TrEMBL record:
Transposase IS4-like domain residues: 3-54
Protein name (database record): Transposase IS4-like domain-containing protein
Any one GO molecular-function label of the UniProt entry: DNA binding
Entry-linked InterPro entries: Transposase_11 (IPR002559)
Single GO BP term: DNA transposition
Organismal lineage: Bacteria, Pseudomonadati, Pseudomonadota, Alphaproteobacteria, Acetobacterales
Top-level lineage group: Bacteria
């Protein structure tokens, strides 16, 4: 069994909030659970596991 750690950090990489999920859980699920914790930002960085139209639309809304 493995795990994924989904994290929101500040501009210096310090964690603001995080969520641990089982390894077989989609990255979209973990990201969706953290969207309410997004701080105001000018840019965002994420790996390709978070590349989905539904997440992009939500993130753009928050920015």
């Amino acid at each position: 069994m493995n795990t994924n750690l989904h994290t929101i950090t500040d501009q210096n990489g310090r964690p603001l909030s995080f969520l641990m999920t089982a390894g077989q859980v989609s990255d979209h699920t973990g990201a969706s659970a953290l969207l309410g914790n997004l701080p105001a930002a000018q840019w965002m960085l994420g790996n390709r596991g978070y590349d989905a139209d539904c997440l992009a639309a939500t993130v753009i809304f928050w920015l």
